[in-house]
Amino acid sequence: MNNTIKLTGLALVLLFTQCGNNNSGGEPMGFSSEMAPAADRKMAAAEEDPQMHTGDAPNTIERKLIREGNMRFKTENVSKTRTFLDSAVTAHGGYVFNENMYKNEGMIEQSVAVRIPDDKFEVFMAAISSYAGKVDSKNVNAIDVTEEYVDVETRLKTKKELETRYIDLLKQAKTVTDMVAIEAQLGQVRTDIESMQGRMNYLQNRVKFATLWINFYQTDSEGFGFFYKVGSGFGVGWAKFLGFMVWTVELWPFVLIILIIVIIVRIRRGRRNI
Fold first, then answer.
1. pLDDT tens digit string along 149-174?
2. I want to staple 69 with a disulfide (CB 3.0 to 4.6 A). Which of 63, 140, 189, 195 is the partner?
3. Average confidence (pLDDT) over 112-121
4. Is the Cα dihedral 28, 34, 39, 40 positive or negative?
5. 3-class secondary structure for the chain?
6. DSSP strand pairing (95-104 vs 107-117)
7. In terms of pLDDT, which residue wins out, 267 or 36?
């Protein structure tokens, strides 16, 4: 019985040895199906089907939502409202990333785009609504990016594991051909990782911070009527007068030349009369 076991074991050793010798041809290290370990085959399968790589059940995945909204209201003073928004945004840990101002006949309107932490978004909107009093329009949309988020996250993890495996294979390479082949694959994997990491960073930022466009305006009743225009007219006239004075001063070299010419002409005429 013991002899039978020993012979069987020896046969298996020779079989594996022969398989290893058959693989020692010109195929690069780490790229043949015989030499590739089971871990490589699992990683390849995980790249094709991301769900194989994660143990999370669909019901336990946290939803990833990108929230965007807009709000429009009338204000008594655009400048004061802008100051209030700056304070409110800072207090809620957000920031302003876009701003525009429009001036039309009888109206001035300002648009401010802000990013607010998602967990403070509703509180921030409530504060703005309370300040505005009567809001002309307000709406919020949520974009579900859970599927894309999980897909990118899973593929990024798989690519990083594949990168580690290629690095290990590179350390084991014994020929220049093997090293060049492995480095080429490693370079492609790293390119994929950078691209996926950029997309992941974008999704994380959009999920973490909600976006709100705020439009507020003031009309004639707040100071753009007849008396406002009369006052503006005086201001424009005074500005033009000052501009004319500056223009006149800039002409002093020409004025000086003309005065010198006039003086010379008068002196010559005076001598002729004598």
1. 999 999 999 999 999 999 999 999 89
2. 140
3. 96
4. positive
5. CHHHHHHHHHHHHHHHHHHHHHCCCCCCCCCCCCCCCHHHHHHHHHHHCHHHCCCCCHHHCCCCEEEEEEEEEECCCHHHHHHHHHHHHHHCCCEEEEEEEEEECCEEEEEEEEEEEHHHHHHHHHHHHHHHCCEEEEEEEEEECHHHHHHHHHHHHHHHHHHHHHHHHHHHCCCHHHHHHHHHHHHHHHHHHHHHHHHHHHHHHHHHEEEEEEEEEEEHHHCCCHHHHHHHHHHHHHHHHHHHHHHHHHCHHHHHHHHHHHHHHHHHHHHHHC
6. antiparallel
7. 267
CB-based contacts of 157, cutoff 8 Å, min separation 6 = 53
One-letter amino acid for residue 224 of the chain: F
What distance, in Å, lies between the first and last C-alpha atoms of the chain?
155
* Residue 28 pLDDT exceeds 70: no
Q: 52-87: per-residue pLDDT in tens? A: 444 444 457 789 999 999 999 999 999 999 999 999
Stronger pLDDT, 235 or 100, i.e. the higher one = 100
Are 164 and 43 in contact by the 8 Å Cβ rule? The answer is: no
Q: Which residue has the tokens 């978004």?
A: 121
CA distances, 184 to each of 43, 44, 232 (Å) = 18, 17, 70
| Alpha-carbon span 203 to 9, nearest angstrom | 55
Give the C-alpha separation, 160 to 173, whole Å: 20
Report the pLDDT averaged over residues 196-217: 96
